[in-house]
Amino acid sequence: MNHHRPDHSGALLSIDLDAICANWRLLKEMLGQADCAAVVKADAYGLDASRVAPALARAGCGHFFVAHLDEAIALRPHLPAAARLYVLHGAPPGVEAEFLAHDLIPVLNCLPQVDAWSRLARTTARALPALLQVDTGMARLGLAASELAAIVADPGRLHGIELRYLMSHLACAEAQDNPSNALQLERFRAALAAFPQISGSFANSSGIFLGRDYHFGLARPGAALYGVAPVAGAANPMRAVIRLQGKVIQTRRIEAGSGVGYGLSWRTAQASRIATVAVGYADGYLRSLSNRGLARVDGIELPLVGKVSMDTITLDVSALPADALQTGSLVDLIDASHGVDAVAERTGTIAYEILTSLGARYARHYIGG
Ligand SMILES: *Cc1c(COP(=O)(O)O)cnc(C)c1O
Predict the structure, then answer these.
(1) Which of 49, 137, 215, 226 can bridge 34 by disulfide, Cβ–Cβ 3.0-4.6 Å?
(2) What's 40's domain CATH number?
(3) Among candidate residues 139, 137, 121, the one with its CA nearest the CA of residue 129
(4) What residues make up the domain containing 330?
């Protein structure tokens, strides 16, 4: 999918598959007996599921989650036959049979999905695997407690369904002292009590860090695999995964009091050197980083000045020696010392959005795997 050559493109994006696998192994170790899946929805958070998922499968991961049916159909050929591939949104009505054709397992989120899956099991005379999601307080996906009670009261409703896990999702897991975590845990335990044979799947990345009580049988980390900090306000134990280097395409000297970029939203206090780098909001370098972003060369911080354009940003590079940057020089926009969390914080978003916005025009380079 990536056809951009480093010498033709405005930026290089390095993606360290070995770091992703090391992050998975760290989480797996924390989980002890519980299994560790990998969430690879949204093209593995923008990093290319067809590269990331096979690397994780070789590292020992046997459970994968995507959001949409089409994501699963595209990913299935890249995974070993034994790998389980789950679709978080479940089966859209009328296309349940696609799940059998592609060996996919739906997460059943509502009673109509439960009924349709059971119907398909009866018409095909097969036991069909599924996860069943219950809402324990996030109010996004999954059966309400009353709907779960309706199923428990009428177990025939699950006829033909081979329940692999009872699942739920945490709303505030990255905030360890948020009382809703314990409340959701209590509700999840109550739901599980109705299914004594079935194991649970509860924790996302941050949920794993809430401790053993939250692990159950299968955890579903995504973000932490890709280097995102799992615990708000704490040191990040995950390895950095991406490095984004933008290419300088022009440099200039400007006088004190000059404006820079659209709207001339930046004015120089003194004579300055400006470097124009070929990365813009069309590449997912968010426009909200205007006058806030940061680049680095040899560890020296270079503030982004002016608005982020569609295809370019402008940096004040006065802190560097005059000849340090030429056309073709690379500047670090995201790296281990200024990672996706730091970039997100500068513009009031989360690292997940920085990752999933990473553009299609970068020359991508995959390391290891
Ligand atoms: C996205 C998602 C995950 C992964 O969450 P992270 O915070 O990225 O670890 C797990 N479970 C569900 C239901 C999700 O939607």
Answers:
(1) 215
(2) 3.20.20.10
(3) 121
(4) 242-367
Q: Is residue 277 domain-shared with residue 186, that is, in the same domain? A: no
- Residue 195 backbone dihedrals phi, psi, to 5 degrees: -130, 70
For 167-182, the DSSP string reads: E---SSTTSTT-HHHH
264 and 133 part of one domain: no
- The answer on 263 and 184 residing in a single domain is no
Are residues 14 and 367 in contact, defined by beta-carbon separation less than 8 angstroms? yes
Determine if ligand 1 sits within 6 Å of the CB of residue 164.
no
Cα–Cα distance measured from residue 265 to residue 125, given in angstroms and rounded to the nearest whole number: 67
CA pair distance 123, 115, nearest whole angstrom = 12
Task: Assess if residue 3 is contained within a domain.
Answer: no
CATH code for the domain of 260? 2.40.37.10
pLDDT digits (tens, 9 = 90+) for 261-309: 999 999 999 999 999 999 999 999 999 999 999 999 999 999 999 999 9
Q: Catalytic residue at 214? A: no
> How buried is 157 (Cβ within 10 angstroms: 0-12 exposed, 13-18 middle, 19+ buried)?
middle
Q: Is residue 166 part of a domain?
A: yes
In a domain, 237, yes or no: no
- Whether residue 68 is found in the same domain as residue 184: yes
pLDDT in tens, 61-119: 999 999 999 999 999 999 999 999 999 999 999 999 999 999 999 999 999 999 999 99
* Catalytic site includes residue 41: yes
pTM of the model: 0.97
Note the pLDDT of residue 226.
98
CA-173 nearest atom, ligand 1? 7
Residues 139 and 246 in one domain: no
Would you say the CB of residue 227 lies under 6 angstroms from ligand 1? no
How many domains in the chain?
2
* End-to-end CA separation in angstroms for the chain: 18
CA of 283 to the centre of ligand 1 (A): 24
Q: What is the CA radius of gyration of the chain?
A: 24
Give pLDDT tens digits for 31-67: 999 999 999 999 999 999 999 999 999 999 999 999 9
Ligand 1 nearest atom to the CA of residue 223, by list position: 8
Considering the chain, what is the average pLDDT of its residues?
A: 96
